[in-house]
Design brief:
single chain, mainly beta, Immunoglobulin-like, 6 domains, 7-stranded mixed barrel
């Protein structure tokens, strides 16, 4: 049964809100007898008559697939389907994106496409030139035959004919003719191994030689020229003129601008005796069976996987057809009104890859009736000009391939927005979610010219929710189905939405460390189309298991530490109940030791000395050892996973190296997300001997301290990189302080300091009151909601107050741009 793709129940709104992502489809699809659930992650118009759709499939065993496909309206007058052979010659190769970019000119934009031909991955021609990147079988681009298939009848070709129609068939290039005077022979190949008893043509776009030394002395070759601007194409009559002497070498040179005709067997007589100036006529006849065809764009596939809407038993047609791999497939509808180009990722945890029958099933799901499998694996690539490479290539980067098939917009350049669309195509919206949508802008031809259109204003029915942030953000306070509307310069767009309580709601942090000064508005979020969306914490009812340890605002969800200890906080809305573990850790002063040194708990190592002894000293350690004269690579390292108390802003080392040469002091630490910061240097300068040096790491240099989720921190090592220590001499290094440094007042973060000396205070700030921003010189200040909308902005010089008028309680991002760079900090509005 063929179904409409599922857009969520919002489509019940009616035809005015319907946006079909495929002509067939549904919430499930059966691939080779296995049923998968289907979730549409992305669906958008990416150019004239063309949409891109991304799907996430899961079967009952948990196996996942990521599917990407382009659907193009073949009746659109502004587009054409065109092939490119990379480098515009047979060998070489290039990425799909580079092919599109290099061929795009004013009025002709190759705006999307996929890889096509299988190709040679190694080898050289007889003249030493590489053949890497050359299609292994037939390939035609722009009407020019780059290569024929010597056994093309065994592999199906997908091609566009001269009427612009898509076709699939076993194409033969072996029925043309070559005529000299009254003699005629069969034209059998172009830029491929020469069949016996026929003539082959080798063009300037081949390897620079026919590349067949094994037929030396068993063939006749002749260099010829073709009228400038002419080329070898299906259905063309070519007039060659002999420009040199005949020969018998199958690996003769093809000179610049020249062609070579090569005859074997009974056809040698046609070329024998030709002289400079003689004319040779050739007719290029391309056929499927007994029918002549005229391919202008052609790629060779294998196998043919979908025919007349039926999935073919194709898995014995090639060795890897029954194995799971990334794959690319190209198909079209029987009535030639739609083209479907598809990539399915593989070789990853989120996409297992498919065999060819499964690829066929997905192409049918997407609307195709006829389809072939083309080159896959690490070659599988889908590209759009406005969005880049869409799939996750299995190589981890875009691979150079032989060729590609592209949709081309044949329209004038035009940067005026005439159509606006939401980037999201439909949405099941979590109640109390906060959504600042992005918009695409298109010109009157349908070309996507702006992927982040600004200045769009929202509106909605009050039953759905309310519009905040000066028309930029939707706050889903209501329930039910409806339309979120957008307006830009009189242009309207509609997004179907269904606002309802969501089962996919969670706290961003399940474990929170806090002190008695910093306040944290608990972040609640939902997952929509694999992206997180903030939920307004004001919508939840909050409680703390132990108010003597930590309190949480019942109305605003702001967490505050009271006394050392642990507790659990709970937030409820509808059927959702969320909990988080809270550890309140109040520093005893501005400085606390990273950890107490206890022998046996630390792993100590050394190179460049002997008899290493480490013992406790105040807030740090004393290090004694005997030198051995080795300087290169010398070090001393103390290693233990030390969980650092509370919310430090710096690490500090106080060190007196005595007579030892210490060239670098560093530490390795890990944040609460598991990110490791290796060999973070306190200093890379040699320390002065017999002098106490105080060294500090500003943690904000590499960690976002405005994100309370980075805590607790774990310090793993303290390392001293050494110079040579005199052999046999005793050395003593005093480190009386290996410490964590907190803000004055026991961990207060009244003003959150960002990089480059920017301060924001008071923080939190009461809604409606001004927040002070200190910057070094002139600065542009912008305050964003978590949804990305601009809530306030100002130009300042030094210190200035920025109003929070109109801001609701919650968390905001402050972005300060100065001549020294850009800094960010989180701002809490109460």
């Amino acid at each position: 049964m063929r179904k409409q793709i599922f857009l969520s129940s919002v489509l019940l709104l009616g035809a005015a809100l319907t946006m079909s992502a495929a002509e067939r489809g549904g919430r499930t699809v059966a691939l080779a007898g296995v049923e998968y659930s289907v979730d549409t992650l992305f669906h958008a118009k990416v150019g004239p008559g063309t949409t891109e759709t991304s799907l996430h499939l899961v079967n009952e065993t948990g196996q996942q697939l990521r599917v990407f496909y382009l659907t193009t309206d073949l009746t659109n007058p502004n587009t054409s389907i065109e092939a490119i052979v990379a480098q515009d010659k047979v060998p070489g190769g290039g990425t799909v994106s580079s092919m599109a970019k290099s061929h795009t000119v004013e009025g002709k934009n190759y705006f999307c496409g996929v890889n096509t031909d299988f190709f040679h991955t190694s080898g050289s021609a007889s003249n030493g030139k590489s053949i890497v990147g050359a299609p292994v079988r037939a390939s035609v681009a722009g009407g020019e035959i780059y290569r024929s298939g010597s056994a093309s009848t065994s592999w199906p070709n997908i091609f566009v004919d001269r009427d612009g129609k898509m076709n699939i068939g076993a194409v033969s290039f072996e029925n043309g003719t070559v005529t000299v005077g009254g003699k005629t022979a069969t034209l059998k190949a172009i830029n491929n191994d020469a069949p016996d008893n026929g003539i082959s043509i080798y063009t300037p776009k081949y390897y620079g030689t026919p590349n067949q030394p094994w037929i030396n002395g068993q063939c006749v070759t002749v260099p010829v020229t073709l009228e400038e601007g002419d080329y070898v194409g299906a259905g063309k009559t070519l007039k060659f003129k002999v420009c040199g002497a005949t020969g018998t070498n199958g690996d003769c040179a093809i000179n610049d601008g020249e062609y070579v005709l090569l005859a074997r067997g009974s056809a040698q007589d046609v070329l024998s005796g030709l002289k400079v100036g003689d004319e040779v006529s050739a007719y290029v006849k391309v056929t499927i069976g007994d029918t002549e065809v005229f391919p202008t764009q052609l790629a060779c596939g294998n196998p043919w996987i979908l025919k007349a809407g039926e999935v073919l038993d194709s898995e014995g047609d090639r060795g890897d057809a029954s194995a799971r791999h990334p794959r690319t497939g190209i198909g079209y509808t029987t009535d030639n009104t739609k083209l479907v180009m598809m990539v399915i990722d593989g070789r990853s945890a989120i996409s297992a890859g498919v065999h060819t029958q499964e690829l066929a099933g997905m192409l049918y799901y997407a609307g195709a009736d006829e389809a072939v499998n083309v080159d896959g694996g690490g070659s599988s690539t889908m590209y759009t000009e406005p969005l880049g490479v869409l799939n996750k290539t299995s190589d981890g980067h875009e691979r150079a391939v032989a060729s590609g098939l592209f949709v081309v917009a044949n329209v004038p350049d035009d940067k005026t927005v005439a159509e606006v669309r939401f980037v999201d195509w439909a949405m099941n919206f979590p109640k109390y979610g906060i959504y600042t949508p992005k918009f695409y802008g298109y010109n009157k031809y349908g070309v996507l010219i702006d992927t982040d259109l600004q200045g769009v204003k929202l509106s909605c029915d009050k039953a759905l929710g309310e519009i905040i942030n000066d028309g930029a953000t939707f706050y889903g306070t209501g329930e039910g189905m409806g339309a979120l509307k957008a307006t830009y310069n009189g242009i309207e767009a509609v997004l179907p939405v269904n606002v309802a309580a969501s089962d996919d709601v969670a706290f961003r942090l399940k474990n929170i460390v806090i002190d008695n000064k910093r306040e944290y508005p608990v972040e609640v979020q939902a997952v929509v189309n694999e992206k997180t969306m903030p939920i307004n914490p004001v919508a939840l009812t909050w409680s703390s298991e132990n108010d003597g340890v930590a309190t949480i605002g019942a109305a605003d969800g702001v967490l505050r530490g009271v006394a050392n200890g642990t507790t659990t906080i709970t937030g409820k809305v509808g059927s959702f109940v969320g909990t988080a573990n809270v550890s309140v850790e109040i520093p005893t002063g501005e400085v606390m030791p990273v950890a107490e040194y206890k022998d046996g708990e630390w792993k100590n190592s050394q190179f460049g000395g002997t008899d290493l002894v480490v013992s406790a000293l105040e807030n740090g350690v004393k290090i004694n050892y005997t030198g051995n004269g080795t300087g290169r690579g010398a070090y001393i390292q103390l290693e233990k996973g030390c969980r650092v108390w509370s919310l430090p802003e710096k690490l500090r080392v106080r060190i007196n190296p005595g007579n030892a040469t210490v060239k670098k002091v560093s530490s390795t630490l890990t944040d609460a997300y598991g990110k490791v910061y290796s060999a973070w240097a306190f200093t890379t300068d040699e320390l002065p001997k017999n002098t106490v040096s105080t060294l500090e790491l500003n943690l904000s240099d590499n960690l976002d301290l405005t994100d309370i989720g980075v805590y607790p921190l774990t310090v793993n090592t303290l390392r001293l990189d050494m110079g040579a220590s005199a052999k046999g001499q005793a050395f003593e290094i005093l480190v009386p302080g290996f410490e964590a440094v907190y803000s004055a007042g026991g961990g207060s973060v009244a003003g959150i300091e960002a990089a480059q000396g920017v301060r924001v205070y008071p923080n939190p700030v009461k809604a409606g009151e001004a927040v002070t921003v200190e910057a070094d010189g002139e600065a542009n200040v912008r305050i964003f909601t978590l949804g990305g909308a601009v809530a306030a902005q100002a130009e300042i010089n030094g210190t200035a107050a920025v109003s929070t008028e109109g801001m609701q309680a919650g968390m905001y991002l402050v972005r300060v741009a100065t001549a020294n760079g850009v800094s960010t900090a989180k701002l809490i509005v109460k």
